[in-house]
């Protein structure tokens, strides 16, 4: 329904543009030759890919491969140097589109960016308010969220007093609190132990089942196995893109870790 | 549609300002520092650090013990600046008096002082100062000489009446200082130097609170990664910044009132100018400082750097070049030129004109215009820089 004809028509009406069907039915992100240069340095070099509605898309790459830069462009934080990208129906080339895009995406950084000196419920309310949700809706959803996270008793605690695992789950819940169409997760499991990480991935699956597309960057190759499809970036280019099973088959490797090592070994760029 | 969007924007903004107040109110230590510091500074500068002298202890060696020395000593003792604590038996007693801390200065008269002053026109006296206290030293010499010179005139008049025409020299080398006295006393008859500190402290504190606190609080969000989350959200970057500035504006206004109240009721600065204009110009300066803080925050990404920049690049010039501690007029030309780039200088100057000299706003219009100029340029720069980032 989200990428259905009706929604797309509405977006095009809103923007006052003809739909050129760049974004195909059932896709939420499509990029074509997307490039970002900083001076003479090309951080992201003509990447082209599509992400399907409701899928968990893993975006892998070594440090400095350009995955964060690419993600920042898709979130509307940074302007592409060249190439085209349409995210959730909005063309990143236009500032007006980016303004609208920001309402329908969620974002969680590796720092679990919540306000440490605000209480749990205050953080939820703040981010609900930022996305223009009404107070009664926020109140209702907050109760629901606290119950699901088992945080009802902790609602008045400062976020700084929560264990890391709780912070991470809360940060993710806050990122999808406004029911975005896509949520961008930038290394969301950094510094968290494996058991907590598995619990976190269950939350990601839940979100995907509700129709939220998950775009996730990660270092951990065991997590790559959880994704529907993964892309592997090396030196600003996408070297491989397929389902984990297909990639393992293609490179005849027993694990994603092995696949990654084969591809990332070609990197010439310094970290 | 647009009305709904405006409502949403308003709701966002209100929840934002609330969040900023929460940040500030929950950081009680910083808040206490912000609120107590102006009080401490005003009291410190007003009393303890005052270059004014009071009840300086004077020991006297007076071998002539005649009518003139007795009157002069009585006059010195009667002034607020000095208290005669000791009559010494010999010139050597001076050292002991300094060592035992029973005197700050020692007056030594020559033998037969009256006779030599009136008849020979050459009465000699010596002021010995405890040089370890430079502050008291120069001021004490200054006041002693002014008392002596007026006594000398008094004596001359009397002598003139007694025996026509023959005026005596009271003490040597005292007449040069008189002119500068009248200059200093022009707007400040009690010569309380604390008055001159008040505009300086106002400028410094407001600069500190607005520029440093605002920049640190914005940079903190960059450091913790929350700024990124905000930039991905539909919040307008400008309203993030504005929401940050509002609480600090409120706090600054409160601090401003505290300083003005303390000055009027505690240090008893006779605020003779229009209070309304003083407040309005201060609010203008607060806006300038806020814009500086915002500009800093767009340039740096670490809290320490923000503190360093606001500390070194703002506080130091504000203290040294604004005329708060040293008069700008007596600085080398280059430093004077640099001082023109310090916004606080213009603010402090205008507050001095209105608060201490009691003149109207039209006597410091140039300063106010310069402040407006700063505000426009700095705000423009930070808006430009902010867009550049996105």
Chain-wise SSE layout:
The complex is a heterodimer of chains A (271) and B (390).
Chain A: H1 5-15, E1 27-38, E2 41-52, E3 56-61, H2 67-74, E4 82-87, E5 90-91, H3 95-101, E6 105-108, H4 120-130, H5 135-149, H6 164-175, E7 182-186, H7 194-209, E8 213-218, H8 221-224, E9 229-234, E10 237-242, H9 244-250, H10 256-264
Parallel strand pairs in A: 3-8, 3-9, 6-7, 7-8
Antiparallel strand pairs in A: 1-2, 1-4, 4-5, 9-10
Chain B: H1 2-26, H2 28-48, E1 56-61, H3 67-78, E2 82-88, H4 93-99, E3 105-109, H5 113-120, E4 125-129, H6 134-162, H7 178-184, H8 194-224, H9 226-232, H10 237-265, H11 275-299, H12 303-321, H13 333-339, H14 343-356, H15 365-389
Parallel strand pairs in B: 1-2, 1-3
Antiparallel strand pairs in B: 3-4
Helix pairs in contact in B: 1-10, 2-8, 2-10, 3-6, 8-10, 8-11, 8-12, 8-14, 10-11, 11-14, 11-15, 14-15
Explain what the structure shows.
Chain A has 271 residues and is α/β, with parallel strands linked by helices. Chain A has two domains: 185 residues, P-loop containing nucleotide triphosphate hydrolases (Rossmann fold, 3-Layer(aba) Sandwich), CATH 3.40.50.300; 64 residues. In chain A, the strands form two sheets. Chain A has a six-stranded mixed beta sheet with strand order 6-7-8-3-9-10, with helices on both faces. Chain B folds into two domains: 246 residues; 129 residues, abc type-2 transporter like fold (3-Layer(aba) Sandwich), CATH 3.40.1710. Chain B contains 15 helices and four strands. Chain B has a four-stranded mixed beta sheet with strand order 2-1-3-4, sandwiched between helices. Chain B starts with a helix and ends with a helix. About 7% of the residues of chain B have low confidence. Chains A and B meet through strand 6 and helix 4 of A and helix 1 and helix 9 of B.
């Amino acid at each position: 329904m989200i990428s259905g004809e009706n929604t797309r028509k509405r977006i095009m009406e809103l923007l006052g543009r003809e739909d050129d069907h760049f974004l195909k039915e059932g896709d939420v992100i499509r990029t074509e030759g997307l490039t970002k240069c900083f001076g003479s340095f090309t951080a992201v070099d003509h990447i082209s890919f599509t992400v399907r509605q409701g899928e968990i898309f893993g975006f892998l790459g070594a440090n400095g491969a350009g995955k964060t830069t690419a993600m920042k462009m898709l979130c509307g934080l940074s302007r592409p140097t060249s190439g085209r990208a349409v995210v959730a129906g909005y063309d990143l080339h236009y500032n007006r589109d980016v303004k609208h895009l920001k309402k329908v995406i969620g974002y969680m950084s590796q720092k679990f960016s919540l306000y440490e000196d605000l209480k749990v419920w205050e953080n939820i309310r703040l981010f609900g308010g930022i996305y223009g949700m009404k107070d009664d809706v926020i109140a209702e959803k907050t109760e629901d969220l606290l119950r699901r996270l088992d945080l009802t008793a902790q609602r008045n605690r400062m976020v700084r007093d929560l264990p890391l695992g709780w912070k991470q789950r809360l940060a993710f819940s806050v990122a999808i609190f406004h029911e975005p169409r896509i949520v961008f997760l930038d290394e969301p499991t950094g510094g968290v132990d494996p058991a907590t990480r598995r619990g976190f991935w269950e939350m990601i699956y839940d979100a995907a089942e509700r129709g939220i597309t998950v775009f996730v960057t990660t270092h951990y190759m065991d997590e790559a196995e959880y994704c529907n499809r993964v892309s592997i970036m090396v030196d600003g280019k996408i070297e491989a893109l397929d389902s984990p099973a297909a990639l393992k088959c293609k490179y005849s490797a027993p694990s994603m870790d092995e696949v990654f090592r084969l591809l990332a070994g070609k990197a010439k760029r310094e970290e | 549609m647009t009305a709904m969007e405006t409502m949403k924007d308003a709701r966002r903004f209100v929840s934002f300002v609330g969040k900023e107040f929460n940040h500030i109110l929950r950081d009680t230590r910083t808040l206490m520092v912000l609120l107590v510091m102006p009080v401490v500074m005003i009291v410190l500068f007003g009393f303890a650090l005052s270059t004014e002298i009071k009840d300086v202890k004077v020991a006297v060696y007076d071998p002539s013990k005649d009518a003139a020395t007795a009157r002069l000593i009585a006059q010195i003792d009667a002034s607020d600046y000095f208290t005669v604590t000791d009559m010494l038996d010999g010139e050597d007693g001076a050292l002991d008096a300094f060592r035992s801390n029973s005197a700050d200065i020692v007056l030594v008269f020559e033998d037969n002082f009256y006779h030599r002053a009136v008849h020979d026109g050459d009465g000699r006296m010596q002021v010995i100062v405890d040089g370890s206290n430079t502050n008291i030293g120069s001021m004490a010499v200054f006041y002693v000489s002014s008392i002596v010179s007026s006594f000398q005139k008094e004596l001359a008049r009397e002598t003139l009446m007694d025996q026509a025409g023959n005026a005596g020299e009271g003490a040597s080398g005292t007449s040069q200082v008189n002119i500068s006295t009248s200059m200093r006393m022009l707007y400040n008859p009690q010569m309380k130097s604390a008055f001159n500190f008040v505009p300086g402290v106002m400028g410094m504190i407001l600069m500190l609170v607005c520029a440093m606190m605002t920049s640190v609080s914005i940079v903190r969000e960059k450091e913790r990664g929350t700024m990124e989350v905000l930039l991905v959200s539909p919040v307008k970057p400008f309203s993030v910044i504005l929401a940050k500035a509002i609480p600090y504006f409120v706090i600054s206004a409160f601090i401003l009132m505290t300083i003005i109240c303390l000055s009027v009721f505690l240090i008893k600065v006779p605020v003779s100018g229009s209070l309304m204009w003083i407040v309005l110009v201060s609010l203008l300066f607060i806006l300038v400082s806020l814009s500086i803080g915002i500009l800093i925050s767009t340039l740096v990404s670490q809290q320490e750097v923000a503190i360093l920049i606001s500390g070194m690049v703002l506080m130091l010039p504000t203290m040294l070049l604004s005329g708060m501690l040293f008069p700008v007029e007596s600085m080398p030309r280059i430093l004077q030129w640099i001082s023109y780039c310090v916004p606080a200088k213009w603010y402090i100057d205008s507050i001095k004109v209105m608060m201490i000299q009691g003149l109207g706003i039209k006597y410091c219009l140039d300063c106010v215009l310069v402040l407006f100029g700063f505000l426009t340029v700095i705000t423009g720069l930070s808006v430009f820089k902010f867009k550049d980032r996105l």
